[in-house]
Amino acid sequence: MKLLIVEDDTQYADALSAELEALDHRVTVAGDGQAGLIAIERDQFDAVILDCMLPQVNGATMVRHLRENGQTLPVLMLSALGRSAEKIDGLEAGADDYVVKPTPASEIDARIKALLRARGWTTGEADTLRAGDILVSPGQHRAWRGERSLDLAKLEFKLLCEMVRHAGSYLTRAMLLERVWGYDFEPATNIVDVQVRSLRRKLTADGSEDPIITKRGIGYMLRV
User: Fold this and answer.
1) What's the CATH number for 2-118?
2) Same fold, 2-118 and 129-222
3) For every one of its 224 residues, what pLDDT tens digit does the chain have, with 9 covering 90 and above?
4) How far is CA 41 from each of CA 45, 50, 127, 213, rounded to the nearest angstrom?
5) CATH code linked to domain 129-222
6) Are strands 97-100 and 75-79 parallel, antiparallel or unpaired?
7) What is the Cα gyration radius of the chain?
8) Helix or strand or coil: residue 67?
9) Is-contact 30 57, C-beta < 8 A?
10) Percentages (nearest 5) of helix, strand, coil residues in the chain
């Protein structure tokens, strides 16, 4: 998984990052809430490990900002022992869970995986990704909805993989252009909308419910 740690204690952040990387995670560290928000805007993460007390933008404010902007990726709060008010603020702002520092990386790993399962998708050892009744295998370039195999063009498949990886969270057009097409600019054509419509038709060809939610001004989200 790709994880973001937002923690101003550099020694603790570096140690936790190393331990999580030893568990086969890819980890990015941000030293304050503002840097964390910028990292999320620029990249895609599977979950955020977020300290309650941060300079500039504290943990609860950061979570509230994410939720108000349609971002539903799992957030695990880090709290110092005895700071109950901060934990409550974070949970009420939209955090999913919390642990008291220091917590073993193995427990943090287990809690994040539980949060991902609760959203209806998991990563598996057999090179598969799942979101609801949609299953994709990036290695085999194959995808299914329920028992039905999906015949997808290359861009449709890449688009579906990206949406499954971040099911439950909105992906902006700029994000999709960068991660699916490799563009760092927005072209004059509506290529994202065209591919989403094509993918949507194939996902619903048997009369199944449309799993893609469009939110004007934000982007697209695969429901879980």
Assistant:
1) 3.40.50.2300
2) no
3) 789 999 989 999 999 999 999 998 889 999 898 898 888 877 778 789 999 888 888 888 889 888 887 677 789 998 876 667 777 887 888 888 988 888 899 999 999 888 877 765 555 444 678 888 898 887 667 889 988 889 898 899 999 999 998 888 899 988 898 888 887 666 667 899 999 999 999 999 999 999 999 998 889 999 87
4) 10, 16, 27, 20
5) 1.10.10.10
6) parallel
7) 18
8) helix
9) no
10) 40, 20, 40
Provide the token pair at 99: 């642990």
Is the N-terminal amide bond of 74 cis, ω within 30° of 0?
Answer: no
Cα-based angle 87, 88, 94 (whole degrees, multiple of 5): 95
Q: Phi first, then psi: what are they for 19, rounded to 5°?
A: -65, -40
Q: Exposure pattern of 110-120 as b/e (b: 16+ CB <10 Å)?
A: ebbbebbeebb
| Count of beta carbons in the 10 Å neighbourhood of residue 24 | 8
- Domain edges within the chain: 2-118, 129-222
Contact (CB, 8 A) for 210 and 203: yes
Do 95 and 36 touch, CB atoms closer than 8 A?
Answer: no
Looking up tokens 């054509």 gives: 189
Contacts of 163 (CB under 8 A, 6+ apart): 131, 171, 212, 220, 221, 222
Closest CA to 137 of 146, 145, 129, 147: 129
